[in-house]
Input
Amino acid sequence: MINLTGIIIARNAENIIADCLDSISFCEEIILIDNNSSDRTGEIAEKMKAKVFKVDISNFAQVRNEGMRKAKGKWILYIDADERIDTKLKESILSVVTQKRPEYTAYLLKRKNYYLGNHEWPKIEKILRLFRKEKLMGWSGELHETANIEGSAGELDGFINHYTHQSLSSMVDKTNQWSEIEAELRLKAHHPVMKQWRFFRVIVTAFYDSYIKQKGYKAGTAGLIESIYQAFSIFITYAKLWEKQQADK
Output
């Protein structure tokens, strides 16, 4: 009986996948869902004894559901290729999954984000990533996926360290990819026609949320760059929405 399965979602992550796999080496089973990589991500994972399943799916929830279906563990831990489990969180996870009658059916894991190298973002997130498989009903949401569970969720000590937006080039590439999906979702939801004032509103809101509300200013220059990038990213999304709305006329 496998107690804990670690599931990694990855695409073109050959430079970082080994470190990710190392950080969840305590899992009895490790599954990599390789989402249409064109590099050596899957090959590296196989050499490190992970079970690799190749897919070509744009819907993020479907990718996570694919991992859930492949997992044989009683518990499932999800992690992305640019994330690492620290020692304290590892100990917390192992303590929970070895209990005969744990109090909760899922657990929130705290996540620290690092931008453009090791610049730590002030705001710490809490995300559902550890589940009893039988209580995880599946994931929904094409881009911002949500876990649907039976029962209640607890919270564990320790952190996921998330090394995101490590270069400006990768940031822009990601924006171009995700903004297309987000714009299409807004179009399907019959978003109001984009007017000039709406662009200013979403840009200012995104910058304010990142730089002021999330205290991005505490991260120095990297925080300013990241906050401007968030404003740029939302602008691209809504510009593409405007473009799609024009094409529908």
Helices lie at 17-23, 41-47, 60-70, 87-97, 168-188, 196-213, 220-247.
